[in-house]
């Protein structure tokens, strides 16, 4: 089956800093692909680069950037803006900053459909009300007339999701959609996303730092470190047999009730994510890695560790 | 043994105006909270945003006067203490090390500030104790000469910890100390806090929205909902056997990294708690999956037993 979104060897630089250094990933229809990593690893830049939304000064290169079989790497801004919000939609972490505080929920939601589909106001309002109901908002008519500041964080994120669905997108890119929310609301929003995906066959690229979210919602996971995808595998496989030392370190850091006894130290990764200068060679994790050896300064092979399981490491650590 | 922190029927009401001519509304941020924390232990406080946990922390730190009730620190009334004495006893570590550190001062000056504010300590002692605090927090002397902007998030939180330790307090109030950090750094900071507690005999009040973190650090856990503690138990007992339906829902919402389990339905519905509009009866009843006849009208009494405290009509 061909992928809905296919990214090959994506590179993004801002001036002298390489933010993404050859990331490849694919999202199939009806699949949730999680891109996981710590702050500064390039996961948000990857999503913005896919959408063509890089900040000024960002340079993007990729050997392939295909959406539904079509190469979108060379599209100009006009053509991209026709795709964005229509066939590919995006939701962000903080719904308060991505909704316009000066317009009502209704006018922001209807704009999407009127602009992309030339719908009439009445049609767009009907569609918006229907979708607000679909994302579990009671009294959609009332909400359409309200301003973003009148809604709670969970409601705002539901509005963002409903807005992203206005034109029946095929791909939804969600950048930390539940990070700013309480755990109880997070569970509701994630259930909502999973339900929508099942019903609408959406492909979802979900960016998160939370391995708990990844484990519960992803079909496939790509772990990013310093601008590279260091490990990629089906979710169950990744959690059962993590191969990359970074993935292993990350998993050991997460406190899990009942796993580490109180008073016993949690696993931790020494040091901090390094800044990568242009022309850097070798493994970016080597300075923090327990297994680092001479070969880590040379070219790093990407090898298969199992079906659909790829690791970027000089070692073949056994499961 | 005198509790390190004791809180007696603490309340804080904010008067909030929503519009120019609208009458002020009362927000009951903390609404009758009592507990005692024995020295050397860690009380974890959990709850959703708006439940009053940060207001509680600010009152215990003496940064916010209570509307009524009392805070006793080390057996002494906080309201009777002067600021310098209070600072020697109790210190904070806040969530965001990006906004809690003065960006225009060097790390060593930030850490020295509580000592300098005491007024009667000579320079050599200040320098020695700053160096000691930096080392305790895992920072080098060289890092002491830097500005906060030159440090990573984890290092900045170490600066905040060094500043909290420099007066050698007995009690540290940690308000979401790792929420702004990455997981690998969070683990470093949690390990550091635990090591410091054991070495220095500190008592922590540890506020967090992350139950897995609280389970890891706290000896006892208090669950707050709309300004009240609805359940308090020893940490192990609470996680093994949560009694209040709200605690049960909170625990069910924790997404542990176990693939295949899916996202649980916590059954709380869509109504959000609003501290300006506390429901009558049990304040949790509009969201409670186990609601029954008395919940909407009668306020549940706290039932206290050896196992802890629960405030629910299903108990007792």
From TrEMBL, chain A:
GO terms for molecular function: ATP binding. Residues 5-251 form the ABC transporter domain. The keyword Nucleotide-binding applies. Transmembrane segments: none annotated. PROSITE patterns: ABC_TRANSPORTER_2. It is a peripheral membrane protein. It is found in: Cell inner membrane. This is ABC transporter ATP-binding protein. It comes from Falsiroseomonas tokyonensis.
UniProtKB/TrEMBL annotation, chain B:
Residues 5-251 form the ABC transporter domain. The keyword Transferase does not apply. Belongs to the ABC transporter superfamily. InterPro entries: AAA+_ATPase, ABC_transp_ATP-bind, ABC_transporter-like_ATP-bd, ABC_transporter-like_CS, Oligopep_ABC_C. Pfam families: ABC_tran, oligo_HPY. The keyword Transport applies. This is ABC transporter ATP-binding protein. GO terms for molecular function: ATP binding. Keywords: ATP-binding, Nucleotide-binding, Transport. It is found in: Cell membrane. It is a peripheral membrane protein. It comes from Falsiroseomonas tokyonensis.
């Amino acid at each position: 089956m061909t992928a809905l979104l296919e990214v090959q060897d994506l590179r993004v630089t801002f001036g002298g800093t390489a933010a993404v250094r050859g990331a490849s990933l694919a999202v199939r229809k009806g699949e949730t692909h999680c891109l996981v990593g710590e702050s500064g690893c390039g996961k948000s830049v990857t999503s913005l680069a896919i959408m063509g939304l890089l900040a000024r000064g960002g340079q993007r290169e990729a050997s392939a950037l295909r959406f539904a079989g079509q190469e979108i790497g060379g599209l100009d801004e006009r053509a991209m803006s026709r795709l964005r919000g229509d066939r590919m939609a995006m939701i962000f972490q903080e719904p308060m900053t991505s909704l316009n505080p000066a317009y009502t929920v209704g006018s922001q939601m209807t704009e999407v459909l009127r602009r992309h589909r030339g719908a009439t106001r009445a049609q767009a309002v009907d569609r918006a009300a229907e979708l607000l109901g679909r994302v579990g908002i009671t009294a959609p008519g009332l909400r359409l007339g309200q301003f973003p500041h009148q809604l709670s964080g969970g409601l705002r994120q539901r509005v963002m999701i409903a807005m992203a669905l206005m034109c029946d997108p095929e791909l939804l890119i969600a950048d930390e959609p539940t990070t700013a929310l309480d755990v109880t609301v997070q569970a509701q929003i994630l259930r909502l996303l999973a339900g929508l995906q099942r019903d609408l066959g959406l492909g979802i690229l979900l960016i998160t730092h939370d391995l708990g979210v990844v484990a519960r919602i992803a079909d496939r996971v790509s772990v990013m470190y310093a601008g590279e995808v260091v490990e990629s595998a089906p979710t169950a496989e990744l959690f059962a047999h993590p191969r990359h030392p970074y993935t292993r370190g990350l998993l050991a850091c997460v406190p899990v009730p009942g796993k580490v006894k109180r008073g016993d130290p949690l696993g931790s990764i020494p040091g901090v994510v390094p800044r990568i200068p242009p022309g850097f060679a070798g493994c970016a994790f080597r300075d923090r890695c327990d297994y680092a050896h001479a070969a880590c300064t040379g070219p790093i092979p990407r090898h298969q560790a199992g079906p659909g399981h790829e690791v970027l490491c000089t070692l073949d650590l056994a499961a | 043994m005198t509790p390190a922190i004791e809180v007696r029927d603490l309340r804080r009401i904010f008067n909030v105006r929503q519009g120019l001519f609208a009458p002020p509304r009362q927000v009951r941020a903390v609404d009758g909270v009592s507990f005692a924390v024995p020295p050397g232990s860690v009380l974890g406080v959990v709850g959703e945003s708006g439940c009053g946990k940060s207001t509680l922390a600010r009152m215990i730190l003496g940064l916010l006067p209570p509307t009524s009730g009392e805070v006793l620190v080390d057996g002494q009334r906080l309201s009777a203490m002067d600021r310098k004495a209070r600072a020697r006893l109790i210190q904070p570590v806040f969530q965001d090390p990006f906004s809690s550190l003065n960006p225009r001062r060097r790390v060593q000056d930030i850490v020295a500030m509580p000592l300098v504010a005491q007024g009667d300590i000579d320079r050599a002692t200040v320098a020695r104790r700053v160096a000691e605090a930096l080392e305790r927090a895992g920072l080098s002397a060289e890092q002491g000469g830097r500005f906060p902007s030159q440090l990573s998030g984890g290092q900045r939180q170490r600066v905040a910890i060094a500043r909290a330790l420099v007066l050698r307090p007995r009690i540290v109030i940690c308000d979401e100390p790792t929420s702004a950090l990455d997981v690998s750094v969070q683990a470093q900071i949690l390990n550091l806090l635990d090591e410091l507690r054991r070495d220095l005999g500190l008592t922590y009040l540890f506020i967090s929205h992350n139950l897995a973190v609280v389970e890891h650090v706290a000896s006892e856990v208090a669950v707050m909902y709309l300004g009240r503690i609805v359940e308090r138990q020893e940490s192990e007992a609470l996680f093994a056997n949560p009694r209040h339906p709200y605690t049960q829902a909170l625990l069910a919402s924790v997404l542990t990294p176990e693939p295949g389990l899916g996202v649980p339905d916590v059954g709380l519905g869509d109504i959000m708690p609003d501290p300006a509009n506390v429901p009558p009866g049990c304040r949790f009843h509009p969201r409670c999956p186990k609601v029954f006849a008395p919940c909407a009208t009668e306020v549940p009494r706290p039932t206290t037993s050896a196992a802890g405290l629960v405030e629910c009509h299903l108990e007792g």
